[in-house]
Amino acid sequence: MNRLLRFPLLLLALSCTISSSFSQKKKTPFEPAELVNPLMGTDSKPSLSNGNTYPAIAVPWGMNFWTPQTGTTGNGWAYTYAADKIRGFKQTHQPSPWMNDYGQFVIMPVTGKMKFDQDGRASWFSHKAEVAKPYYYSVYLADHDVTTEITPTERAAQFRFTYPKADSSFLVIDALDKGSYIKVLPAQKKIIGYTTRAARSNPKNFRNYFVIYLDKAFTFSRTFRGNTLVKDSLEMTSNHSGAVIGFRTTKGEKVNLKVASSFISFEQAELNLQRELAQDNFDQTKEKARNIWNKTLSRIEVEGGSEEQLRTFYSCLYRTLFFPHKMYEVNAAGKTMHYSPYTGQVHDGYRFAGTGFWDTFRALYPFLNLMYPSINQEMQAGLVNDFLEGGWLPEWSSPGYADIMVGNNSASVVADAYMKGLRGYDIEKLYEALIHGANNEGPISAIGRKGVEYYKKLGYVPYDVKINENAARTLEYAYDDFAIYQLAKALKKPQAEIDLYAKRSQNYRNLFDPSTGLMRGKNQDGTFQSPFNPFKWGDAFTEGNSWHYSWSVFHDVQGLVNLMGGKENFVKKLDSVFTLPPVFDDTYYGSVIHEIKEMQIANMGQYAHGNQPIQHMIYLYNFGGAPWKTQYWARETMNRMYKPTPDGYCGDEDNGQTSAWYVFSAMGFYPVCPGTTQYVLGAPLFQKMTLTLENGKKVEIEAPKNSDENRYVQELKVNGKSYDKNWVDHFDLMKGGSLKFDMTNQPNTKRGTQESAFPFSFSSKQ
After folding, report:
1. Which of 44, 300, 411, 633 has the most crowded Cβ, counting Cβ within 10 A?
2. Is 520 left (phi over 0), alpha (psi -120 to 50) or beta?
3. Quick one: which H or E segment has residue 211?
4. Rounded to whole angstroms, how far apart are CA atoms 148 and 108?
5. Which residues pair with 65 in a beta bridge?
6. What is the structure's pLDDT at 26?
7. Nearest residue to 169 (alpha-carbon basis) of 122, 219, 110
8. Count of CB atoms within 10 A of residue 102's CB?
9. H/E/C letters for each residue in 732-764?
10. Burial of residue 521 (number of CB atoms within 10 Å: 0-12, 13-18, 19+)
């Protein structure tokens, strides 16, 4: 045969062989953990937040996280992408840089000259030699020629350090300042210690105890006090305690470290280590953590998007699964216990910490109620303990009561969980806590209700009585009263009590200014604040202006529509948010705070997605008969404001809230009013998404024609039947089924325009 003819036949045969061999291979298992970028949002600084995140190496809701530390001790920006040196590897519980950290300590390998202070031990690193996964972190420390690897469990972790050939290899354990203790036990290859460092809430008798084991004997052991190395004691209690251990290493030698901690005792830390690490080696712990992440993330399986969209989605989903983190532990008898920051003692039961309800009531907690209700059931039981031990529900726990932000949004968190079917905890005690918080000022302004006597008497917190952010407080109190009203009805409380909170839920009306069509601060005598600049940030509002807060009537959008002059005017007002220039008045703050700058540079007018108050606003078009505008702007925001990159958020991520907005919006619906069972419709981002609910049911969300151009809903079929509402119900989703969206590139200006299609509003009682 001619050689030229034979060659194509050989290629054909080879092609068939390869094709056959591929077809016989099993389908690659779905591993969403590999799509997550823990560095998303880390390219941030105090003046501009692209997320203000750090790479959290942990398991979902773990008690402890680990992160490389590039910032100095006490700097809330623990890891910033632009940094070029690592000072150590920190156990952290930090909710946000603005809240800072509690219970942290640092581990750092060093070679050559023995340096233990944070600057001396620091090493250059490159992102090119860095691997960040939810379950695993690795980085090459150039100055020490050491590769550090970390893999986590809930309360413990394993480290693996690959050292060079050196006579002087070290490991620094820094328990940090503000009061700490350390003890080196060379015969046991063990270090124990505790840190008392806590930035925000002055928790009583606070200690984070840690236990560390190495698999290599020490040939050098020292403790240090501040910047002074101590030669005559292997035990140190001081303001700033630490230890340095040393040994010879051969080239490529791996030194393994096991570490666990406890907020209860050294004995409990030891138990946590033995229970969670047992005899596992580093790779076994890593595989277990990887499996946990894949299983947890796989509860939502996405198909049909670009790689960038998939990475963004799972990176956001990862961020929703951290806070609040567990602060409970299990003792030797198998009993759940926790340290209380309120009493300084150990109590029975669950406890969680590290979240602010002002942020997370909006979407994070509703997301847990939909996809991970069992963890929120534990969280609700933990709130019972907060009330029993501290006398109040927290509004920001870090780990105790932190005096920051406004509102009384624990009411929303409690009511939404119960209304969506969560049970198995003392709801009567939580209701008691809500009534107590709604009618009393707390010992600090951020628990209970600041200005509550004015609110009860006048129906608003006045502008001229020296209570900051008074209009924001009023609007949030009114919504929180609605949440209490919902729970009171569900618990069959006396009608007079139900009616009281129903009436108070309408207090938002007291701040509506007909002359501007916006919410405005009001003086004690009933006159509106003057002069009034709707672009002024702060003052009567919280981290926003009137254009942001005027939409904070989650429970009665129809009432707001009526105040604004009907549907047409309402929709025009919504449109104005995007068409107005991003002007601002920063005189209240005296400088351009980062939230202002993030709105200004986003090029979306007055829409400030980087902060929470306005994040639900896009979905309000459904209440004005223009759902296609929700569909357009939700997609626009997902496309423009989120990327799976270090600068991938458009403001503070905030404990999963901004991520939960994306996850919900990608599903095609959003919980505008927690405390009801409705989700307001947008349009899905992907061609297919499968939700596997905890009850075993599946919800399939399909949009086969979905594309960037086809962002509008022509028709929705629910379980095969045409569906014309602008909302779906939680309990219908709980039954499983399908939502099939017929997507098109042109708005359907007829679907969802009738009031019978609109979501719930208190005024319409639909």
Report:
1. 411
2. beta
3. strand 208-214
4. 9
5. 92
6. 60
7. 110
8. 26
9. HHHCCEEEEEEEECCCCCCCCCCHHHCCCCCCC
10. buried
Looking at the fold, whether 83 and 223 belong to one and the same domain comes out as yes
Neighbours of 208 (CB within 10 A): 26
| Domain stop point among 376, 402, 430 | 430
**Letter string b/e over residues 363-397, b meaning 16 or more CB atoms within 10 A of that residue's CB:** bbbbbbbbbbbebbbbbbbbbbbbbbbbbbbbbbb
353: Cβ–Cβ under 8 A, 6 or more apart, which residues?
A: 93, 324, 325, 327, 341, 397, 398, 399, 400
Compute the distance between CA of residue 109 and CA of residue 247 in angstroms, rounded to an integer.
Answer: 11
Pairing status of strand 727-729 against strand 678-681: antiparallel
Per-residue confidence at 409, pLDDT binned at 50, 70, 90? very high
pLDDT in tens, 218-255: 999 999 999 999 999 999 999 999 999 999 999 999 99
Q: Answer whether residue 15 is part of any domain.
A: no
Which tokens sit at 495? 């009608």
Which domain CATH number covers 707?
3.30.2080.10
> For residue 195, what are the β-bridge partners?
180, 208
Q: For residue 385, give the amino acid letter.
A: N
pLDDT tens across 252-292, in order? Answer: 999 999 999 999 999 999 999 999 999 999 999 999 999 99
Q: Which two tokens stand for residue 227?
A: 């910047």
The amino acid present at 462, given as its one-letter code, is P
Distance CA 300, CA 661 (A): 15
What is the C-alpha separation between 358 and 413, in angstroms, rounded?
Answer: 10
476 and 410 both lie in a single domain: no
Task: Find all residues with CB under 8 Å of 162, minimum gap 6, and list them.
Answer: 146, 147, 149, 252, 253, 254
Q: Which long-range contacts (CB under 8 A, 24 or more apart) does 264-269 make?
A: 264/209, 264/329, 264/337, 264/338, 264/339, 264/346, 265/209, 266/192, 266/194, 266/209, 266/211, 268/209, 268/329, 268/331, 268/337, 269/192, 269/209, 269/210, 269/211
Residues in the chain: 766
* Within a domain: 49: yes
Rounded to an integer, what distance in angstroms lies between the CA atom of residue 663 and that of residue 367?
9
> Which is nearest to 183 in space by CA: 266, 113, 273, 278?
266
CA distances from 63 to 194, 360, 377, 462 (A): 16, 19, 17, 41
Look up the domain containing 115 and give its range.
Answer: 37-298
Burial category of 558 from C-beta neighbours within 10 Å (exposed 0-12, middle 13-18, buried 19 and up): buried
Q: At what angle do helices 657-667 and 364-371 cross, to 10 degrees?
A: 50
User: In terms of domains, do 391 and 310 share one?
Assistant: no
Per the structure, the count of domains in the chain is 3
Residue 3's pLDDT is: 38
- 318-335 mean pLDDT: 98
The whole-number average pLDDT for the span 604-618 is 97
pTM attached to this predicted model: 0.95
Q: What are the angstrom distances between the C-alpha of 301 and each of 39, 264, 314, 507, 687?
A: 22, 38, 10, 42, 11
Helix (H) or strand (E) holding 60: none
Residue with tokens 């509703």: 366
β pairing state of 727-729 and 698-702: unpaired
218 Cβ contact list (under 8 Å, min separation 6): 184, 186, 189, 245, 246, 247
Structure tokens belonging to residue 8:
């194509």
pLDDT of residue 29: 83
Q: Is the dihedral of CA 308, 314, 320, 325 positive or negative?
A: negative
Q: Closest by alpha carbon to 213, among 240, 185, 194?
A: 185
* CB 458 within 8 Å of CB 505: no
Question: Most distant CA pair in the chain: distance in Å?
Answer: 104
Residue 221: how many CB atoms within 10 A of its CB? Answer: 14
DSSP, res 481:
H
Contacts of 599 (CB under 8 A, 6+ apart): 582, 584, 606, 607, 608, 610, 611
**Alpha-carbon 718 to chain mean position:** 31
The CATH number assigned to the domain holding 370 equals 1.20.1050.60
